Amino acid sequence: MPSAERSILYGEAIPSSALKTTYINNRRYLGSKYKLLPFITSVVTEHCEGVNSVADIFAGTGAVASAFTDKRLITNDNLYSNYICHLAWFSPLAYSQEKIEQIIALYNKIDITQDNYMSETFADTFFSKTDCRKIGFIRDDIERRLAIGDINERERALLITSLLYAADKIANTCGHYDAFRQGVEFDKHLELSVPIPANGLNAGNVCYNEDANELVKRILADLVYIDPPYNSRQYCDAYHLLENIARWEKPSVSGVARKMDRNELKSDYCTKKASKAFENLINNINSRYILLSYNNMAQKGNNRSNAKISDEDIISVLSDKGEARVFTQDYKPFSAGKSDIDAHEERLFLCICKHKDRPIIQSPLNYTGGKFKLLGQILPNFPKRIDTLVDLFCGGCDVGINARASQVIFNDNNKNLLHIYNAFKNLGNETVLFMINEIIDKYGLSRSNEYGYDFYGCDSSGGLANYNRKPFLMLRKDFNIKNDDYGHYIMLYTLIVYAFNNQIRFNSKGEFNLPVGKRDFNAKMKMKLCNFIDRLKSGNYIFSCVDFRKFDMSPLTDNSLVYCDPPYLITCATYNEKDGWNEQCERDLYSLLDTLNERHIKFALSNVLRSKGNSNEILAEWLRQRDYRTIHLDYSYSNANYQTKNKADTADEVLIMNY
Ligand SMILES: C[S@@+](CC[C@H](N)C(=O)[O-])C[C@H]1O[C@@H](n2cnc3c(N)ncnc32)[C@H](O)[C@@H]1O
């Protein structure tokens, strides 16, 4: 084996002083908005208020996201070769710069004499045979290092990004990989540079690799930036070779340009389906602002460069969503030289979204008896105007956090819950995520989101319990040594995330006593947490921790609403075990509601009249004697009833109101 190859395998140190560095915008990319960043940021600064999170959902190089690194970022592209670069530039996962430099220095020094997939498939086409061998060797070596735990997922992304940028720089193309020039001399050779991501990235950043139309159904951001392809040129055709190297599935290729099968990667935005796809996309977006880049090539250039969505369609779809405004700037397009156009106008369409209701968000705690699935039936029954909403038994906060009210007071007698919420509100997203990440690293808990289930020797159905059991028990032990600061409650939240069914349970000594669960702090949990904290920060939310009988109702008026979701007398949810919600509690609550009614303060009460063969006679009797309004909701508990054998015997869930 040649010595350089040997040194790679045995990790011989090579001085890294001569290394070059590279930045996000050191690459060519069709439709890159790098040059438009001043225009884009000025529109956002001047016309969008209070933007704390930005989603760049057709992110390409990630150039636009890179202009908003002071905010929480969501990036997405359906090409894996772009996604892997986004992880490198924006992921909050820590990495060792020194390690990256060492490895890149090794890669730059090495000579590879053996053939591999790259040289066998692409020799002397887009790259020389020598560089193909080197690219193939490096790409294999990156996977090998990940497999033996030498590098983490961020370091893998940084190394692949370095390789993609270096390869693209020397490629024998005129900017894209549809064709290569025949018979050229390969005078430039592969040289990797060290990628330098921005400092101070937000710990809540998340990168996705999927169809933007599907993603928007699940994400929330203050501003969603949309930069879809304009014309029939498919990005998976133009960048097939970079995509091939990034994915490294070593597929067979065909045609002069040696393209792999790209059927799964074709974008609707390059076809006549574009207008319909755009309409669906906009309809499903949950944000306050939408900013769209789309050029004015509809009538210009050759057929292939014509825009697929007409201005009329854009304005009509955006106007349905909110108030649409258009901004223009002259801009020289990236062109392969065929369509002879000097300059065109680049436009930004801003939509200030009107929301009949704010987007519904989910509690970051999977709280037993949580009302998330019933919100669609509960919230429309709330009064239009609520000055103060008291969520008297707030639990997971699903109701109060999604209701429209000038002020929301969350109350619950579970002080642990309230401490967690207080910590969230006072610390803010970034600090909370930072602390959670520190706990995950300190105890060695899994990060399936970054490494996948395989890495932990688990699969999705079996879950991560085997891997996490030991670190989870260590964390539980440390948590149960009493303490009372914010850090303690972030530890509790982390415990809940990794605990059985994400539940909260304490024994009689006040110790958290649930076993480990199947899941971890995955993208969904992180998203729920960030959305929740953002919401807490955006409004007037107050926390209180008293027995419901002691809650001070004296400041409430006839524009207040007291929403009650007490433990249900006749169901067996875990909170009944210790605190023992009993008939006296039930009667006390009804008398409290009667008192509110006498004072003309509105209340809404959730409860069940009948469940699993039992019926709540006290409630039924109280209702018979009063004039309150009862509506029956349609729901079967999916969480608390996991032990119920007869699913057909669903609960008669009701909402009772005095207005
Ligand atoms: C105009 S480019 C974006 C350029 C980017 N703003 C930049 O500055 O680099 C459009 C991007 O959308 C991606 N794309 C196309 N269809 C998509 C889809 N359905 N979902 C997600 N990404 C898609 C392409 O891979 C391409 O990177």
Element layout with pairings:
Layout: H1 3-10, E1 21-22, H2 37-47, E2 53-56, H3 63-66, E3 72-76, H4 80-90, H5 97-109, H6 117-122, H7 129-147, H8 153-170, E4 194-195, E5 206-208, H9 212-215, E6 221-226, H10 235-238, H11 240-247, H12 274-284, E7 287-295, H13 311-321, E8 322-331, E9 344-353, H14 375-378, E10 388-391, H15 398-402, E11 407-411, H16 415-443, H17 448-451, H18 465-480, H19 486-498, H20 523-538, E12 541-544, E13 560-564, H21 575-579, H22 583-598, E14 602-611, E15 614-615, H23 617-625, E16 629-633, E17 652-657
Parallel strand pairs: 1-4, 2-3, 2-6, 3-5, 6-7, 10-11, 10-13, 11-12, 13-14
Antiparallel strand pairs: 7-9, 8-9, 14-15, 14-17, 16-17
The chain binds S-adenosylmethionine.
What do you see in this structure?
It contains 23 helices and 17 strands. Strand 14 and strand 15 (614-615) form a beta hairpin. It has 659 residues and is of the alpha/beta class. It has four domains: 34-77 and 208-232 and 271-356, Rossmann fold; 93-200 and 233-263, no CATH class; 361-413 and 546-659, Rossmann fold (3-Layer(aba) Sandwich); 415-527, Adenine-specific Methyltransferase, Domain 2 (Adenine-specific Methyltransferase, domain 2, Orthogonal Bundle). The chain is globular. Strands 10, 11, 12, 13, 14, 15, 16 and 17 form an eight-stranded mixed beta sheet that branches. It has a seven-stranded mixed beta sheet with strand order 5-3-2-6-7-9-8, with helices on both faces. It binds S-adenosylmethionine.
